[in-house]
Each structure stands twice: as structure tokens, then as C-alpha cells.
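1st attempt posting a full record on here, be nice pls
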Amino acid sequence: MTDLMSRVLSRRTARTSDAAAPERPRESTWRLCRELSPLLRLLILTQLAFNIGFFAVLPFLAEHLGTAIGMAGWLVGFVLGLRTFSQQGLFVVGGWLVDRYGVRPVVLAGCVLRVAGFAWLGFAESSWTVIGAVLVIGFAAALFSPAVESEVARQAVAWEEDGHGPRTRVLALFSVAGQAGAFVGPLLGALLLAVDFRTACLAGAAVFVLVLAGHLWLMPQHIPGRVRVRERGGARILLRNRRFLALCCAYGTYLLAYNQLYLALPDEVQRAAGSQAPLSWLFALSSVLVVFTQLPVTRWAGDRLDLHRSMTAGLLLIASGFAVVAAARPTGWTGATGLLPAAGFVILLTVGQMLVVPAARAWVPDLAEEGRLGLYMGALSSVSGLIVLAGSAATGFLLDLGLPAAVPWLVLAAVPALAVAVLPRREKGAGTAA
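the predicted structure (as C-alpha cells):
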């Protein structure tokens, strides 16, 4: 316990001293990358490649299942839900495996499964073979992502403690890499679909072959400072960690809000424009904002806000995005003018995301039990995913009730606003949130 307290206090001292230091010269993405350790650069490039391979295939899966395979609409939705469950729902399993066996074997296993899953999906021609391939693809991410995310968080803490600046800068760069991959992946997939869906799947598999080779070559067998936990009981301690569970609940409301890009926003765009064609431009707007402004936003927040205030500001911005649409709905605007509230929602949601995501990931190491960071990072995603699952069902029901146009958006605005009260409070005497 004494070691754990001294570790947390040293982190707080590092953050406090960093905030008091003279203003640093304006940095570029490349300058920040050069400051990072080779392992951090590998993990961040891995996130970029991971999302390129993933988004080269998955955005086009629903259409392929409905047209080429001939699945009914309900079965397509079921398959997509299985993929989400086998990924997000099992993150906590992947995190536990990382703590027990280390980062390298879990990442390598995830890469092998992802290669096999994409190759299988490319040749799958029946419902059951598609379901098998999708489950393998999802579980591969449930291994891969917690391993990478937990080690990036741990390395970001070490980077902060060495006096380089707030850990959120590293985690922001990790988010930028992910969004860049999410932007490039669909463009690559669209080009490959000019041949066929199988080609897109095999190209996605090829990306993960490259990731696998890179980790076999560059990932160390043992990462200094990483302690493997052999004893059991971590889950029981986690479930009694009220501060961590409070963070999960608040983070889950952000993910529920983000999920409205795929649930509530398409209905609003359809109403305003008469089709969902502008959706692709709004998604591109979100990705471009993250790629080009995530680091400046994080630097600004790191100089002025602690983790608690950063998440508070982000959640309130997200709430205001829903409120913008709610305020505009009674006007009945259509056409280009009618799309302005939707664009405002996307911008405010994205800026809120840029504050919430790095702060939440940076907060987990302070709340996690020693040696169980993988379990806690996985649980952050899994618990939040359960909140999204329940919340999305409730949102769909709300949208179908035929209520006045502004009411569903006002309810959605209230969720992240109320989540501010759920955030764990700062400890007395702490210079920053923990």
C-alpha cells in the first residue's frame, strides 16, 4: 500500500510541477513522436495500422451480408451485434490475459486471430461461416486492444514521471493515430471493393500480417517495469473499486453519446436533407477534427485543467451538442440550413471526445490495482460497452415513441450532463484528479 501511495503521489507531483513550469514551445506531431520511446512509437503506429485494416472491411460488411450472402435484415443486425459483443464485451478478458501473460504474447495472438478471421470472412459464403469469422475477428480485437491500450497508458505515466509533460499528450497522440486509421481505412476499402469484397478482406488480413511481423521483430520479450500478476481475486477488488466504477459510468455516457452518430444522427440528417448522403461528410468532419486538432486541444487542457475538469468540460460540451439539435428541431429547417444543427452536434461531440478520451485513459492507472492495469483498461471498455448496449436500446425506444421532436435530444443531452455528478471526486489536498 505504501508503494502504491508513493507512486500515485509522485505522479501528482509530476503533473503539478509540469503545470507550474514555463510554457513549452509549440510542438508538432512529429516533434512529439521523436520524444517518445521506440516502444511507444511502435504501439502508436500499431493503432494506426490496426484501424486501417479494420475499417477497410467492417464499414462494408452489412451491405455484403445483405446483398452477396442474402441475409435477412434482422440477421445482419444480429451478426453486427455479435461482432461488437465478441470485441467490446470481452475486453476485460483480454486485459486479464495481458496482466497474467504479458503484452507480447497477447498482441501476437490477437494479430494471428485477426489475420485468420479476415481471410475466413473473405471466403465465407453461408450464414454460419460468416458468424464464425465475425466472432474470431471480434475476439482478436478483445485480445489486441487491451494489450496495446494498457501498455500505452503505462508508458505514458512513465513518460510523465520522467518530466516530459502530461501523460494525456501521449494518449492524445494515440487517439490521433486511431482516427487517422479510421479515416484512411474506408477509403482503402472503397478502392478495393472495385475488385470485390474478398480482396478487401485479404488486404485487411495483409495489414495484420505486417503488424504481426513488426511485433515479432520489435516488441521486447519482457518490458521493463511490467509486473505479471499470478494470483486471483483481481475482479473482486475491481468490483469494489467505487471510484473506478464511477469513471466507467461517466465514460460509458460518452460512448453512448458517440453511438448516436449511428442511431439518432442518421434520422436527423434524413429529415433535414431527404437522404443520408451527407452522413459521410459529417463522419469525415469528425475524423479530420481529431487528426488535426487533438494535440492542440490536449495541450491546452493539460496546461489548464486536471483530469476531473477535463472530463467535466468534455461531457458538458457533448451535452450542449445534443441541446443544439433540440433547440433547432422546432424550427423545421431543411436543406443546407437544416444540416447546420447536425454539423454543430458533430463538432461539439468531437471536441468533447478530445477532452474525455485522453483524460479517462490517463485516469485509469491512478485507480487501478498494482499490476492489473490490463484488467482495468479492459473493464473500462467492457463496462462502458454494457452501458451503451442498454442505453442504445432505450434510445431506440425513445426515438420510436412519437414524442415532440426536441424531447429525445433533450433527454440525450441530460445523460452526459448528469454524468458529471458521477465522476470520482478529487481527494483532499490533491493537486489534480486521481
